[in-house]
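Re: the 129-residue chain
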Amino acid sequence: MLQSVSEYYISELADWNRSIEFYDSEITDMEDKLNEIIHQNTIPNLAANTERFLNSMDIQKSIFLAIQHDIQEQETRLFKNDEPEEHVEITSEAKENQKSLRDKMQAAEKNYIDAKYGCYNFLSGLLNK
C-alpha cells in the first residue's frame, strides 16, 4: 500500500527524532568522558583542549535541539484533526519546510560525525601517551 506524502513526511520526521535522541545520548556519554579528563587535569593545557571538545558537543546538542523544534512545527503542519493531511492538501510551504529540514538534518549529522570522531581521536591520543 502506498503512503500519502504526509504519511511519508511524518515517518521521516519520526526517524529524525529517533536519530537525534540517539545522538543526544552519545553526546552525553562523550561529555561525561571529557569532564572526567578535566577533573583529572594531570597534563598541562589538557583542560583547555578538552573544553574545546566539550564546546563542540554543546554546539551539536544545540543544533539538534533546534531541529527537534522545527520537526515539531512541521508535524503540526502535516496533521489535520489528528490525522495526516491527504496528498492533495500538502502545501508548498510544508514541502519546502520538509526539504529544508532534510537538508539541516543531513548537515547536522555530518558535522556531528566529524565532531564525534574528533573527540574519539583526542581521547584515544590521551590513552596512548
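DSSP finds three helices and two strands in the chain.
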